[in-house]
Amino acid sequence: MGAYRKALDTCVVTAANQVLGLKLKPGTDYYAEQYDARRRELKSGVDGDPELIRLAGAMAACLKGKGHAISDATPLAMAERGPETFRVQEDRLGRAQRDDVPDVAPPAKEGEPPMTYAPTLTPEEARPYLNREIKAALDDLECGRDFYPAYLPRQAAIDEQVNDRFGM
């Protein structure tokens, strides 16, 4: 980490502690801490809600019936499964095209998003992936028609609370 980034992180953490009343340790990545706080709040706020659990379970059953693999039917996992599935696929294709990166991504450091490598595809090569992604998105919308109207306002409220706490 460069001296400038280290000094900036120290200033941001000091200001966040003094102005916002946070209790961040020196050397903390402010944005990673905000990301972690959001994840914790979402997990406790939506994954423990009985109605969201019921709706997520119904969505998972519907998607399984359409041939989609579902490994985690918690509300947060169901909300993130579509984009995450295709991000992993994109990364796998991108890594296969490069000789300078490992075939399997190393685990992301806590609080950091994983590094993703995008492939270079011709339109003809990309078409089958696009068609599968469109079908999956339509299935997700159909199966989640009851889930998303209940989930999204909760997610937005949690995002707003965390953003307010972190002065965003």
Please tally the β strands and state the result. 0
What is the beta-strand fraction? Answer: under 5%
Series of secondary-structure elements, N-terminal to C-terminal:
HHHHHH
Helix segment count?
6
Oligomer: single chain
Structure in words:
The chain has 168 residues and is mostly helical. 67% of the residues lie in helices and 0% in strands. The longest helix has 22 residues, at 75-96. Helix 2 (30-46) packs antiparallel against helix 6 (147-165). The mean pLDDT is 86.
Task: Write a concise keyword list for the protein shown above.
mainly alpha; 168 residues; 6 helices; single chain
Structure, briefly:
The protein has 168 residues and is mainly α. It contains six helices and no strands.
